Amino acid sequence: MYIPQFLYIPQLVMNAEIEPVTDHCMIPVVKSPKDCQVYRISPQDNNRLAIVFDSAIADDSLTVCLEIFDPGGKTPYHRHNFAVEMFFILKGEGLAICDGKNIPLRAGDSLLVRPTGIHEIRNTGSGRLHALCFMVPNEDFSELIRSGIPAELDEEDLKVLSRMDSLIPC
């Protein structure tokens, strides 16, 4: 009997049979930062979005991307009708404005924006602001990103994604 590691609970195993899923294959999707497709939503934007996973890749209604704000970069004020959006700040300093409230952001902070919350994210630091962004359900976010202008991750972005920027030299 196959028992997935995350389901291994001795009482569960002793009291019930677990049948493997045979009607579809659950192969995980693994990507490297170099595999991400990167876009600017419009030509005047000074932020880029690198799609990590979206509906096309994950076969589910979600979007996970790295949002990179150049100094002074920001999103426009906007809201999502049904989606919850979460940001995890990897590097840099910023400001979230959510329904009129100013919330300072820095590396390690998380921000959850509920549906219909009017919000904007700004880079207030002297360097780039790197944030992981999760949106569930997708609410056409990845389609908006993909309709933009192709861009690239540069060496600084790749170092942040691989955490090479946080290594201390010996």
SSE arrangement:
Layout: H1 10-15, E1 37-40, E2 47-53, H2 55-58, E3 63-69, E4 84-91, E5 93-98, E6 101-106, E7 110-113, E8 119-123, E9 129-136, H3 141-146, E10 149-151, H4 155-162
Antiparallel strand pairs: 1-2, 1-10, 2-3, 3-9, 4-7, 4-9, 5-6, 5-8
Task: Describe the 3D structure.
Strands 7-4-9-3-2-1-10 form a seven-stranded antiparallel β-sheet. A hairpin with a 2-residue loop joins strand 5 and strand 6 (101-106). 25% of the residues are buried. The chain has one domain (41-162): Jelly Rolls. Residues 1-14 have low confidence and may be disordered. Helix content is 14%, strand content 34%. The protein is built from four helices and ten strands, in the order H-E-E-H-E-E-E-E-E-E-E-H-E-H. The radius of gyration is 19 Å and the shape is globular. The protein is α+β, with helices and mostly antiparallel strands and 170 residues long.
What's the CATH topology label?
Answer: Jelly Rolls
Which shape, going by the Cα principal axes? Answer: globular
Strand order of the largest sheet: 7-4-9-3-2-1-10
Largest sheet: 7 strands, antiparallel
* Low-confidence runs: 1-14
Fraction of residues in β-strands: 25-35%
The secondary structure category is: alpha+beta
Can you name the CATH architecture? Sandwich
Helical content stands at: 10-25%
Task: Quote the average pLDDT.
Answer: 84
Taken together, the total number of domains comes to: 1
**CATH homologous superfamily descriptor:** Jelly Rolls
Q: CATH class, anyone? A: Mainly Beta
